[in-house]
Specification:
The chain is mainly β. The chain has 1 helix and 10 strands. The strands form 4 sheets. A 3-stranded antiparallel beta sheet has the order 2-3-4, with helices on one face. It is globular, with a radius of gyration of 14 Å. The N and C termini lie close together (11 Å).
Amino acid sequence: GWRTPTQQEFESLIKSGREWAKMDGIVGCLFGSDNNTIFLPLAGQRDYVRGKLEKQKEFGYYWYNSNSAYSDMEHCLFLDLGRRITPNYLLDIKTGCTVRCVRIMD
């Protein structure tokens, strides 16, 4: 029952309210309100040429299921330390980004 979220789900998450925060020393964005929240850290990315993890604490890239028309690019949610949030950021599919799966609860 687990899957990658859709662009619409990420856009809904952004509209649910957000606050830049630090949890356990990690900078990120806290989405939602009250007891219904999720923290997405600025976890960086894995460079597809060198395989090196980079840009932690600066950027967060989260893959989602977009059924992209591009063969070598895919969309992701992009967060940056400058407090910018882009729900349809286009990135090379060889880049290692965070996957945050969702599950519909009955």
